[in-house]
Amino acid sequence: GELVFSQVRDLSYSLKTLAGDIGLGYKHLKPTAIVAVTNLRNRISDSSVTDFKYGLNLESKYKNGYNRLEISAQSGEINSFGAFVTEGKHLFNKHEIAYSGWFYDDNYLDLTGGSKAASIRHTVEIEEVDFSYSDKRGGQEGGLLKTKVELSDKLELINSLIYARRDHDNYNFEVLSAFEKEFKSNLLLRLDHVSRIKHRLESNQESENTFRRSRVELRLIDPKLYVRTYLAYQSKTDKSDYISFFASTKYKSSRFGDLSLWLNLGEINHNRGRIDYWYAFIENKNELIDHVKTVAKLTHSYRRGERDEHISTVSVGVEVTL
After folding, report:
1. Burial of 269 per CB tally in 10 Å (0-12, 13-18, 19+)
2. Residue 322: is its pLDDT beyond 70?
3. How much is the pLDDT for 1?
4. What is d(CA 36, CA 5) in angstroms, rounded to the nearest whole number?
5. Cβ–Cβ contacts within 10 Å for residue 140, how many?
6. Strand partners, 284
7. What is the pLDDT of residue 288?
8. How does the average pLDDT of the chain come out, rounded?
9. How is residue 128 annotated by DSSP?
C-alpha cells in the first residue's frame, strides 16, 4: 500500500490532499482499493470545500499482455458516479496493439488532476470558495488505439488514433505517426508527426482549429539518469508557425535524493526572434526516514501578452509508502 500527502498554497488558497491505496496480489489478478480526500480552502474568507474519491482498480495479466480498469465514485461537495477508465496491451510476436478508454461524470471534480483525458478544457467555478479552474475531465469521454510494428532490428513504426468529446459540439480528433530507433547506448531517437482537429462551441461561437507538429526527439534512459529533449516545428490555425524546445532530466543521487529539472520553451517566435511562452521547474525528493520522502518544488512560467505575466510557485509535501 501507499499513502501520499501534499499541500499547495498561495496567498489566496490552500489545497491539501491525502490519498492511499491497498491491494491484493494474485498470480494473474490484482485488485486495489483507492481512497482520496481533498480540501480546498479560501485563506481570505476561511471558507472551504472537501471532495472525497473512492475507487477500485482491477488489473489482470496474461502471457502476451494485460487489461486494467478503474471505477471511482465521488462524494462531499458534489455526489456523482465519478469515472471509469480502462486500458490494455497485447503483443503479437514482435508487434503490439494498445488501447484505452475513459468516461467522466458531468459533475466530476478534478482538483488534483491525473488519469487519462484529452485536452478539452472548460472553466469550473466553485462558488463556495470563490474559486475557478480549467478542467479537462468533467463530462469527457473518449478512447485511444495505438499500434507498434517492428520494421527491423530496434526500428519501429508507431501509429495512434484518439477521439474524445465533452459533447457533440466539443471534440478532439488526432492522428500520429512516428519512427523510433533504439541504440545500444540506452539512447532512443524518435521522429514523429501529429495532426489534430479541435471543434468547439463556446458562448454560441463555433470554431474548428487544426494543429500540426513535426518533431525530432532524443531520450537517454539509465538506472540513475533519465534525459529527454526535443525540437519541434508547429503550426496552428489561429497563429503564426513557431518552434518549441523542451529538455528534462531526472537524476537519482545517493546524497541529494531524486532531482528533476524541466525546461519548456513552448513558443519560440522565430519570425520576431523572441520567446512568447516558457515554463520551468526544479523538484527534489529526499528520503527523510524509511518509507517517508519530503518533496519540494519550485516552478516559474512566463507568457507574453498585453501584460507580460511571470508566475512563480513553491510547494512542499510529504510522501509516505507503506
Report:
1. middle
2. no
3. 81
4. 10
5. 29
6. 259, 296
7. 87
8. 93
9. G
Task: Say if CB 163 and CB 171 are below 8 A apart.
Answer: yes
Q: Output the CA torsion 263→267→270→272 (10° steps).
A: -120
CA atoms within 13 A on the CB side of 197: 9
Supply 1's cell numbers. 500500500
Lookup: cell for 99: 488501447
Model confidence at 40: pLDDT above 80: yes
The position carrying cell 459540439 is: 169
Nearest to 56 by CA among 23, 78, 80: 23
pLDDT at 115: 83
Q: Could you tell me what percent of the chain has a pLDDT over 90?
A: 74
Q: What is the pLDDT at residue 54?
A: 94
Short-list 314, 319, 318, CA closest to 9 = 314
Determine the pLDDT at residue 135: 92
Cell numbers describing residue 61: 495479466
Report the chain's C-alpha Rg in angstroms.
Answer: 21
CA-based end-to-end distance of the chain: 5
Q: Which three cell numbers stand for residue 319?
A: 510522501
User: CB within 8 A of 155, min separation 6: which ones?
Assistant: 179, 180, 181, 182
d(CA 317, CA 285): 9
Lookup result for grid cell 489566496: 12
pLDDT tens-place string over residues 246-283: 999 999 988 889 999 999 999 999 988 999 999 999 99
Contact 7, 41 (CB under 8 A): no
Strand partners, 241: none
Q: Quick one: pLDDT band at residue 77, thresholds 50, 70, 90?
A: confident
| 121 alpha carbon, distance to own chain's centre | 14
